[in-house]
Each structure stands twice: as C-alpha cells, then as structure tokens.
Prior knowledge:
single chain, 4-stranded antiparallel β-sheet
Amino acid sequence: xxxxxxxxxxxxxxxxxxxxxxxxxxxxxxxxxxxxxxxxxxxxxxxxxxxxxxxxxxxxxxxxxxxxxxxxxxxxxxxxxxxxxxxxxxxxxxxxxxxxxxxxxxxxxxxxxxxxxxxxxxxxxxxxxxxxxxxxxxxxxxxxxxxxxxxxxxxxxxxxxxxxxxxxxxxxxxxxxxxxxxxxxxxxxxxxxxxxxxxxxxxxxxxxxxxxxxxxxxxxxxxxxxxxxxxxxxxxxxxxxxxxxxxxxxxxxxxxxxxxxxxxxxxxxxxxxxxxxxxxxxxxxx
Length: 286
C-alpha cells in the first residue's frame, strides 16, 4: 500500500508494507497539505523552510498540481499570499487551503481564488492558527490550534456559519471523525486523543495521519526548537486498526512529517477525497 507523505524537505511515496521510501518532489521548501480530485493531486509548498513568525509575514506559498503519475502539471498562485499553509482538502469542486498565519482559509473553485476568515480578523496574526479542515455529515470542521489548548469549530455548510466549539488536545493537528467520535493528534502532548476517551501515546510530536483499511499511519517528529526542525529525522508509526503498534518506518534527515494521505482510499481523515485506487511510482530512492 503506497501513501504520500510531506516533510520539511520533500513529497515522498512510502510503501507501508515494505518500508520503501522514494522522493517524488523536492526543492520547494517545506511541503504540507495533500488533497486530490478525480484526476489531480494537490500539494501545498511553502517555498521556504520552517520560518519564525516574523518571517512568515513575507511568505508566499503555492499549490503544486500533479497527475496521478506524480508528474507536475502546473502551479497555482492566487493574487494574495498563501502564508503558513497547513492542511488542504478538495471538496464540492473547490480546493480549501488553511493559511494559519492569516487565520484564513483560501478557496479555489478552478477559476478564481477567494479568502474566508472563520473568526473576526485580529490585528495580531496567527491568533487561532487554523491548521486542519474536514467535511463530514454536511458540515465543515476546522481545528483551531490556538498555540495551546485546541478547539474543533463546527460550521454549517455551505453557509459557513459557526455552530459550536469543542475542546480537544493541545497544540493539536489533524482532525477526523468516525462513528460520531472526533480524533486528533495532540501534538503538544505526544499522543492521539478522541472525544470518547481514546488515548494513544506516540511520543515525539505527532502530526499527519491516515486511516487505511487495516492500518493507521501516524507521522512522529522530534520535538525541537523551530530553527532546528528542518534538519532532524522523523518516522512513521504504523498501527493496526485497533491502535496496536506494528512498526516504525524511519525518515532520516527529512525534518518534520507534516501530512500523510492515501490517494484512492476514502480514508477517515479525508472522507471528502475522490479518485481511484492507484499504485504510485517510485522515483529517486532515499
């Protein structure tokens, strides 16, 4: 089973059965969100490495668009800057891009870009640090990292009207929903938590997760200072469907793991995703 993984250095393909890892793209700074439509794969590229907050003000990322053979087709850049991009999803014919620095979600409908601020605009950037987005049960859910205790915000869709907030995790990343239960990577605590009481210690800084048939894969990075993050090593922790640890796939010198996706599976983390099950090619082996 082949998955896509973004890191501080690369877009990777990883075979979670054999552990074989290959570089699909490199050279666009830190890579983050992954989304896909029926015939295209979208990857967020920040164009620079991990940056301190004051430098993120000048950031202007892009969306790399690949076909299902991972050939780069084009690059998307809106008229406004995509700053501190995190998770992205493709839903209802649109690409939705979380931009944490501006507490904004950028939306691309194939013709034009627009921006949505889920909360009143603050004079201080990165107040809520919206970093994860899913669509489930005809609602939109955003994760507000809050630089501390984190919340899941529930919005009516398509009105984008805030309905309620629910606390879950600390410095959290990624949200998904299964049988009415919310899950998150509580990155600041080094564990996976759910609204029903699940608590799975991972150690390190968990971020990036994909739930596939028979396997759950979690990205675990080292907890280090920001200016050291691009030069560390990270790993993928593979669990069975009951959260029993199976193995570790090491990613030496890749820096942080930022996102994981399995194109072609309607996985729980990205239930809005579309496409066919595919076998992604290997490129430059690492």
